[in-house]
Specification:
Blueprint: H1 2-19, H2 49-59, E1 65-73, E2 79-83, E3 87-93, E4 98-105, E5 109-112, E6 119-123, E7 127-131, H3 133-138, H4 142-148
Length: about 150
Amino acid sequence: MNLRLLCSALLLALCAGCASDPPPLPPRRQETPDYRLAEKHPTGILVPIDEWKLNLEQELPAPWKLADVRAQIASPKGWTRLGGDRGLELAFLNGEQQQRFWVMPAAFKGQTHGEQVAEQIAINDQFALYALPEAAASWDHTPTVKQALGFE
């Protein structure tokens, strides 16, 4: 009977060992993600927007003010961009009226479409200034904007 009891205990011990959870896996090695280094200097033209804002605040007569600056504009009104970097849209407001200008890189290439098409009204080495022709011609402060942005 002792032999039977010993075999039963041994069989029970072996079965209990097989029923337990497997040993834990060794910790996985953390792989270093493949990071790309950013370019040291951005490509394209850097716009001196802070300087332009200051110039416009100082030179535009009240009640006109620079109300909005939108970056990454694909093209001026009435244009489709075919080449060149994106530009800015500047909105001026006096409480009742609004006047818009588009500052694009001088290398901007586009094709016109539609009825209202902004025209290039000034250009320098880096930038071209666009406005709707009837609005720019009738607005008294167009020369002030040109001067503040460095076009004259």
